[in-house]
């Protein structure tokens, strides 16, 4: 079991801290996401221009990359999100370790909001939820009337980057968020769902085992069978070897433990699951979601499978449809 000790900070409601560890904070360093180079759009664009220029690219290529950046992240969208959303980063403590987290919610709240715990993909520092990924993947969903809370997983944003066990002890970092949510102003603790992308789907199902309060789940390009996935993408073995403790000695069992397809029969029948996947996904086979949907149906667990035929791992070609699907799913089931 993870250990989480609590105290208030910023927007979070005051807590009682145990006398044994009065110096510990569950939530610390609360800061706005719209800070530094992200304080305004011009600063962000200037930062990206310097970044592109530092790669010693030709001027026309720098301009091309900058135009692509501005096409993806427009000034209109940036200003609208900044005006309408509250976004904060914070740190919290799990198992004695400092973990980075974040919270996004609409500024105008008339009633308590349903909460979505977001579990990111990638591993270690790769795939961390930086400002750009927040704007691309989370701001549009929060704008539809949700509070989004997430963990970067232990070790992220550190030079060592060696604490992520890819479905091991860092799952505790997700489970601990439920205690934090109960202390966030405007959060409806009776309406909490989880959303995971790629590796984050594995994280979602592992964490859900310890989180009976989860009401609904959604995943994008979810990995549900790590052993079988190796045949589709052999390069993932390097990630498993580097991340999973004792991997060489007990490979099959460790991957099976992380594969929800092996324990579908233990999942609650009152927690519906939305599965979205691109048929052209080169990173995680779409067969993961197809097989999982069939397994869920066999166990009479409500589920919906949405396959985007021409799309890839990130569902880049169907972003608006994906946000609409997620919003409808969670508004219906939370």
From TrEMBL:
The keyword Signal applies. Residues 1-19 form the signal peptide. It comes from the Bacteria. One of its GO terms (biological process) is proteolysis. GO terms for molecular function: serine-type endopeptidase activity. Gene3D superfamilies: alpha/beta hydrolase. Pfam families: Peptidase_S9. Keywords: Hydrolase, Signal. Residues 135-334 form the Peptidase S9 prolyl oligopeptidase catalytic domain. The keyword rRNA-binding does not apply. This is Peptidase S9 prolyl oligopeptidase catalytic domain-containing protein.
């Amino acid at each position: 079991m993870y250990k989480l000790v609590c105290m208030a900070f910023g927007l979070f409601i005051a807590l009682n801290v145990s006398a044994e560890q009065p110096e510990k904070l569950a939530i610390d360093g609360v800061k706005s996401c719209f800070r530094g180079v992200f304080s305004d759009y011009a600063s962000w664009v200037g930062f990206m221009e310097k970044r592109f220029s530092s790669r010693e690219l030709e001027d026309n290529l720098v301009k091309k990359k900058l135009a692509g950046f501005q096409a993806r992240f427009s000034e209109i969208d940036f200003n609208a999100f900044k005006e309408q959303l509250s976004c904060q980063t914070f740190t919290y403590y799990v198992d004695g370790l400092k973990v980075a987290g974040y919270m996004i919610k609409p500024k105008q709240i008339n009633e308590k909001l349903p909460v979505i715990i977001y579990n990111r993909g990638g591993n270690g520092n790769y795939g961390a939820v930086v400002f750009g990924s927040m704007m691309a993947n989370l701001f549009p969903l929060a704008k539809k009337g949700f509070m989004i809370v997430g963990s970067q997983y232990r070790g992220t944003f550190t030079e060592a980057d060696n604490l992520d066990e890819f479905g091991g002890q860092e799952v505790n970092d997700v489970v601990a968020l439920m205690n934090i949510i109960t202390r966030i102003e405007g959060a409806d603790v009776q309406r909490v769902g989880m959303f995971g992308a790629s590796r984050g789907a594995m994280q979602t199902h592992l964490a859900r085992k310890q989180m009976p309060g989860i009401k609904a789940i959604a995943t994008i390009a979810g990995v549900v069978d790590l052993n079988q996935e190796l045949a589709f993408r052999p390069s993932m073995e390097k990630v498993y070897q580097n991340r999973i403790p004792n991997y060489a000695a007990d490979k099959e069992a460790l991957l099976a433990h992380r594969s929800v397809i092996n324990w579908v029969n233990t999942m609650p029948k009152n927690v519906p699951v939305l599965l979205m996947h691109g048929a052209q996904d080169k990173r995680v086979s779409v067969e993961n979601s197809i097989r999982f949907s069939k397994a869920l149906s066999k166990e009479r667990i409500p589920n919906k499978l949405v396959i985007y035929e021409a799309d890839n791992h990130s569902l880049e070609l169907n972003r608006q449809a994906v946000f609409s699907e997620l919003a409808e799913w969670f508004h219906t089931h939370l």
